[in-house]
């Protein structure tokens, strides 16, 4: 199970929740991400399926046969694999020598976090981008506690930072700082209109980068609202899932799924930061149509991603991450 359940009936105001999260819900700081260092026991990143090319464990183990990394040369012993004989050393010394290899059996954990400006949205508590960063931080800290290496990609529609897997706390801190820097850059460019085609191209390119750095057996997380998902990106994700364990965390906000209920009809002005339109609340027929369209879009999205071999987790921006995990976030889908 990806999470550990815990009952909690305590009610808090949004501001109290934000204070506890060390967050204002809009910008991103290193302090709120460091907070998850002591929360890593909330989840479990143990392998959920057997993968070709994956090796269990979290250490470098010497092997007498063929491995992944050369270690040393020693005298040949009975039982050694003759394919590993070092003929150059054997010819030079006149005695048979064999190569020893070590297998890299720690599991790289790669996290790709989408911080494009479409993620800078939230109607109740946090921006989707902030919640995505919180999920990424929790995954990174838990991976570190298991001895795994942490790397990945942090990106928006204009820039990206690629981080090769690193071990220990250095890998986590490197990733967290990349989150903070990229999020600040996203906020800075959010005043400019979002070019959807550019965002789609950037998303696909970053899926390509993720595929290139994902070695067989890696645990790969993609955190996004999938707003810029394309068929090309799905193909890259499908190739990743063939040799890695691919988990996609879908971020959403309640307003994207259902209109607020009101006792009477109210016309409000809504904006995504660039475009503004009028929306009527309290119209039951309109609200139902809105909700059904959202469900259809979500179903179509899930179908695409599960067909690509991904496992899906849903996270909402309207609740603290811990609350969702305590309650039992929708576990591995299908």
Automatic annotation (TrEMBL):
<feature type="domain" description="DUF58">
    <location>
        <begin position="72"/>
        <end position="295"/>
    </location>
</feature>
<dbReference type="InterPro" id="IPR036465">
    <property type="entry name" value="vWFA_dom_sf"/>
</dbReference>
<protein>
    <recommendedName>
        <fullName>DUF58 domain-containing protein</fullName>
    </recommendedName>
</protein>
<dbReference type="Pfam" id="PF01882">
    <property type="entry name" value="DUF58"/>
</dbReference>
<dbReference type="InterPro" id="IPR002881">
    <property type="entry name" value="DUF58"/>
</dbReference>
